[in-house]
Amino acid sequence: MTTDAAGERVARPRPTLYDLLFRPFGYVAGAQSLALGLAAIVAAGSLGRLSSMHFDGVLDIHTGRPAPLSVFLYEGIVDWLALSIALFVLGRFVSRAGFRALDLFGTQALARWPTILASFVALAPPCRRLAASIAAQALQPGALPADRTDVILGGLLFFAALLAIVWMVALMYHSYSLCCNLRGPRAALSFLVAVVVSEIAAKLVLIRILVS
Amino acid sequence: MKSLPTICPSCQSQLTVARLVCPECGTGVEGSFRLPLLAGLPPDDQRFILDFVKSSGSLKEMARLLGVSYPTVRNRLDEIIARVRAAEEEESA
After folding, report:
1. Is B67 close to A13, i.e. CB distance below 8 A?
2. A141 in a domain, yes or no?
3. How many domains does chain A have?
4. What is the pLDDT confidence band of residue B25, given thresholds at 50, 70 and 90?
5. Which site among A35, A154, B21, B34 is 20 to 30 Å from B87 CA-CA?
6. Is A33 inside a domain boundary?
7. Are A141 and A180 spatial neighbours (Cβ–Cβ below 8 Å)?
8. Is the pTM of this model over 0.80?
9. How far is A9 from chain B (nearest CA, A)?
10. Residue A8 is assigned to a structural domain of this protein
11. ipTM over 0.85
């Protein structure tokens, strides 16, 4: 319970588990979501450094070469900014409502939090062995294949990481829909355009940064 | 006191006021009076508008009061604005 401007007691709605998992931005936005989101991007990058899990595109996820922490942080920041800028520009054109950039950028940052789970999953030994085996076979076709247990367990864990990315996309869409007050085909289509444009832009920027 | 019904339970049309009474002397006035625009809005919207005015029009304060995020309150306000505009157009038609 809280009190309104006249001092009367007002009941606050309690978010359900579904709200917290899939519609959290009805309760968290603005500076709070930006701070939490940036912390999530740094956490995912730090875990990615340990598990060599790269997010080198807005929706890309794969294990790769070990790299300095800065590479993983660049990936998270560029992915976040690329999609947020694309959604901001499209939102201004498509939406009739006024909205704050802080809400969109903040909730888009926080929407990336499932990448922490994906990076964490890749730390599991079966995932590491499976990824190493696939990389070795790609470089040397005659290399030993992975152990069957690693294939099954690692495959299941990588599938869980993939589900985390699907969850992240659902959160990104919810953030866009809520912040720009858009629903239906207009929201879905403009979101899709923003994802495609930002995916290409993020790839180009990351290649440029990492090569230089 | 009972809350004011604004929608006809039979056909869902907007109700009008047929009789007003002075509670002090019992004088009654009869006729067909249109409800004020805000009285025609759903009770939740009326409550929101009252809280919004009492919060000096601060969406941040409204978000804190309702325990929801700023864009949620902003969208709610946009919905109410759309309803008010539709009611105004209906009145002027």
Report:
1. yes
2. yes
3. 1
4. very high
5. B21
6. yes
7. no
8. yes
9. 10
10. no
11. no
**Domains of chain B by start residue, with CATH:** 36-92 (1.10.10)
Cα–Cα dist A49/A44, whole Å: 9
- Extract the tokens encoding A174: 């919810």
Are A6 and B74 in contact (CB < 8 Å)? no
Beta strands in A26-83 (DSSP E): 53-54, 62-63
Q: Measure the CA angle with vertex A48, ends A80 and A112; round to 5°.
A: 30
**Shortest Cα–Cα distance, A26 to chain B (Å):** 5
Quote the distance between the C-alpha of residue A107 and its chain's center. 11
Instruction: Give yes or no for a contact between B19 and B11, defined as CB atoms under 8 angstroms apart.
Output: no
* Distance between B52 CA and the closest CA of chain A, angstroms: 9
Q: Does residue A1 belong to any structural domain of this protein?
A: no
Residues of B in contact with A26 (CB under 8 A): 68-69, 72
User: Which residues from A are below 8 Å from B72, CB to CB?
Assistant: 25-27, 29, 178
Nearest to B71 among A2, A6, A29 (CB): A29
pLDDT digits (tens, 9 = 90+) for A23-54: 999 999 999 999 999 999 999 999 999 988 89
Degrees (nearest 5) of the Cα angle A184, A35, A209? 85
Using CA of residue A38, residue A40, residue A43, residue A49, what is the dihedral sign? negative
Q: What is the per-residue pLDDT across A185-198, written as a single tens digit (0 to 9) for each? A: 999 999 999 999 99
A10 touches chain B (CB under 8 A): yes
How close A58 gets to chain B, by Cα (Å)?
24
- Here the contacts of A59-65 (C-beta below 8 Å, separation 24 or greater) are A59/A165, A59/A169, A59/A195, A59/A199, A60/A199, A61/A115, A61/A118, A61/A161, A61/A162, A61/A165, A63/A122, A63/A127, A63/A131, A63/A135
CA distances from A185 to A94, A107, B87 (A): 11, 21, 27
